[in-house]
Amino acid sequence: MQRISLTLLAILLSLSAMAQSSVSNYETAKHLDIFNRLYKELDLNYVDSLAAKDIIEDAIYYMLEQLDPYTTYYPEEEQDDLRQLTTGKYAGVGSLISYHKDHDRCIISEPYANMPAAQAGLRCGDVIVAIDGIEMPKCGKHNVRAYSDSVSSAMRGEPGTQLRIRVERYGEPKPLDFTITRRSIQLPTVDFCRMINDSIGIIGLNAFHENTAQEVRQAILNLKSQGMRRLLLDLRGNGGGLLGEAVKLVGLFVPTGSEVVSTRGKVVYKNQTFYTEAAPLDLNMPLVILTDFSTASAAEITAGALQDYDRAVIVGQRTYGKGLVQQPCELGGIGGGVLKVTTSKYYIPSGRCVQAYEFEDGTPRHLPDSLSKVFHTKAGREVHDCGGIAPDIVVKEDSLPNLITYLMLSNLVTDYVARYRTTHPTIDAPEQFHLTDAEYADFIAFLKENKFTYDRQSSNTLKVLRSIAEREGYAEQAKEQLDALESIFTRNEDYDYRQWEKQIRAIIEPAILTDYYYQRGAKEYDLRTNPTVARGLEILSSDATYRSLLSPAKR
Fold first, then answer.
1. Nearest Cα to 490, choosing from 466, 448, 456?
2. d(C-alpha 113, C-alpha 518), whole Å
3. 187 pLDDT higher than 90
4. What's the rounded Cα separation, in Å, for the pair 169 and 422?
5. pLDDT greater than 70 at residue 521
6. DSSP structural state of residue 353
7. Pick from 127, 132, 129: which is nearest to 155 by CA?
8. Which residues 6+ apart lie within 8 Å of 475 measured at CB?
């Protein structure tokens, strides 16, 4: 009887699931039919002609916005962007471009070292006015992103083909013409690698593309041949990429057959667990990983898995919290397109899910440790599923004023770098470069000449306080005190430029170095000025400190 009851229960549950599935399928079919009929009626009767592509794509994008930030549709003409995202490869000239508001055009914002654009002589700040003899009109009222995409597309092409580009350059009375031969571009994912002292090496990793793990392996071997016994792996700003490369990279430091990550989603048979396969490169070398808020996806899996195995000390800021897996799905049919759809979540060896709990205005929300679940590393250290990977050693970021935010968002840094280049054919090596006091004063004078403005948080808060005081009837009673505060908070640019000189230099000096020495210049500057790097080096320099951070007794 018990066996019969269990059989009947299983049948009932199966029928219930089938019924629920039928209801869901019916609802889906009904609403798709409504959408189809509605569009047909609009197409027949609306007063103006409908742009089918724009309207339907807008509807698609709106639907996807209701899901997660990573489920994305790539129309047929944008599939090169998807390939570049996953492989790091494209055919072009090897330069970033960006929109410049004052010129209302795109500019060359960063040519890459040893790439066609740099070899031809293009510089940061060059304004793009024509490509292959066709004028690039100003953006005007067009969508800035679409305008920038059109310029970027015009610069790409088949490897071996030539690109003729005309630019306007600061200090040059006439436009300059360059002829560049396009080639297949694959940026190295190891963008910085050198010995810091006689025993510590650093490897900077900017993404997880094809062959990333092999690049890191080779970089480690090269550094070991120079005497490296301790490694600083920099994953700050690394947005991730291919999951398989993260698994291989973790495998360089842990035993063969170690679990790295599992994926779990609605379609159970597609769930997978990924283990290391190749023989490790080094199981004992002290390892510190640097992270920040921009460390995401495959980079978080790498940091989290090595933390779970007590194989590395994580230093910096909590990572982004992208723990969702996407799979490309080719839609086929007329027009095609690819849907990059979220299918599951990542879980690292301790059982933690990397994903942040919520997104507000596109920003992930992390939980405090007190509200999260407790997990344990292999050695028994407590870790939490608070969203992202919480570092073992937190290095707090500086609290910056609005002045710095406004400066970073303006085009004036780019403009000043272009001007600086015209009067400085060469500069000191990245390890020594520093603006003199006179050059810093010149930069501040440049900001003033160009009427750079910014809001001060203190002044804005005081305005709010005055408004509240008026509403609550305290304005007259508190007038003297509020006026006194206003006299203090009234913007004094010279005071601000002195007060925040260190932070302002940290923006303009690496920008200048990048123009002369490409990414290596900015990395060298960061190496000698960034507190997160300094803290990582401090930990690696002391075996006792390193071991204590990986010991459960010290947590």
1. 456
2. 6
3. no
4. 10
5. yes
6. B
7. 132
8. 466, 469, 482
Whether 308 is catalytic: yes
Looking from the CA of 28 toward its CB, the CA atoms found within 13 Å total 6
523 flagged as catalytic: no
- Quickly count: other Cβ atoms within 10 Å of residue 292's Cβ: 19
Q: pLDDT tens for residues 92-105?
A: 899 999 999 999 99
- The share of the chain scoring above pLDDT 70, in percent, equals 89
Question: Catalytic: which of 297, 392, 415, 523?
Answer: 297
Q: Is 208 helix (H, G, I), strand (E, B) or coil?
A: strand
How far apart (Å, rounded) are the C-alpha atoms in residues 387 and 390? Answer: 8
- 234, 308, 392, 526: the active-site residue: 308
pLDDT tens digit sequence for 291-311: 999 999 999 999 999 999 999
Distance from C-alpha of 413 to C-alpha of 406, rounded to nearest angstrom: 11
Question: What radius of gyration, in Å, describes the C-alpha atoms of the chain?
Answer: 28
Q: Are 521 and 513 in contact (CB under 8 A)?
A: yes
DSSP symbols for 227-292:
T--EEEEE-TT---B-HHHHHHHHTTTS-TT-EEEEEEESSGGG-EEEE--SPPS-SSS-EEEEE-
Please give the average per-residue pLDDT across 63-72, as a whole number.
83
C-alpha separations of 416 from 95, 265, 403, 404 in Å: 19, 50, 17, 16
d(CA 289, CA 204): 10
H or E stretch covering 95 = strand 95-100
pTM over 0.70: yes
Compute the mean pLDDT over every residue in the chain, rounded to the nearest whole number. Answer: 88
Structure tokens of 320? 């982004």
Q: What's the pLDDT tens digit per position in 334-363? A: 667 888 888 889 999 999 998 887 766 667
CA 199 from centre of chain = 30
Q: How far apart are CA 256 and CA 280, in angstroms?
A: 7
Residue of 510, 492, 523, 527 lying closest to 416 (CA atoms):
510
Point out the catalytic residue in the list 95, 322, 385, 526: 322
